Amino acid sequence: MTNWRVVDIIKTSADFLEKKGVPDARLDAEILLGHILNKNRLELYLFFDRPMGKNEMDIYRDYIKRRGTREPLQHIVGETGFMNLTLKTTSAALIPRPETEVLVERVLTLNVKPGARILDIGTGSGCIAIALAQSLVDVNVLGIDISREALVLARENAARNDTEVVFQETDILTSLPKIDERFNLVVSNPPYIATRERDQLQAEVAKFDPEIALFVGDDGLSFYHRFADILPDILLPGGQFLFEFGGSPQESSVLNIFMEKGFHDLEIIQDYNGDPRIIAGKYLP
To answer: Which of 44, 45, 131, 205 has the least C-beta neighbours within 10 A?
Structure first.
């Protein structure tokens, strides 16, 4: 077939992606085509008989081939949505996920006052730090990460969303951030997957997300032990924290870590699927 129409190319591409084991194959085929044609999915349905140009087909074939290797959709189109932001996505950092939006949404329900100092540990793409800096009034946000490549991406995302965030290279497992004052709030979506669980991950995650942002130790709990130890050194009295964790298998362990260290007002927050996803608490010396 030499004169491909939108309706033809979507069906053929969806069939190809499905054979490659891609979840939501037709949805991805539509999103990739819409990205090339600068149309949303509804608009594609209104142009099903539109013929595809050669340059459009060449680009689309490349996109579908890449998606067939299980390269994430967000890497192919180069961006993703998070809260009210559009963020650049690369292999330098985790792709922002809906579960992490729950953390940001919960922070926005807190009484975070103007002038508050917020620390985002393992900032990655900068999604949490940027969303909080943009949504809260006159706050000072510091995002730290061990990865220089991730920090380059985070700074670019802050700039493209016209949001002021300070970023700093720090390995939180071995040192503390360079700061003059303590924080009112500490947040993090840290690595929490045990190394032995690598084979259980989707190919999109295991092959394309940076390992340093995924895996930690034999039980996935290293960061929570570290956080419980250092929070008294970086949080102001009465300061709060919210940390994402790996769902039901880690819930009791994470909760016990912070209970044993004497933190107050501990709460487990569920994600959109009803799974335990975030631990929140307060430092009261």
So the answer is: 45
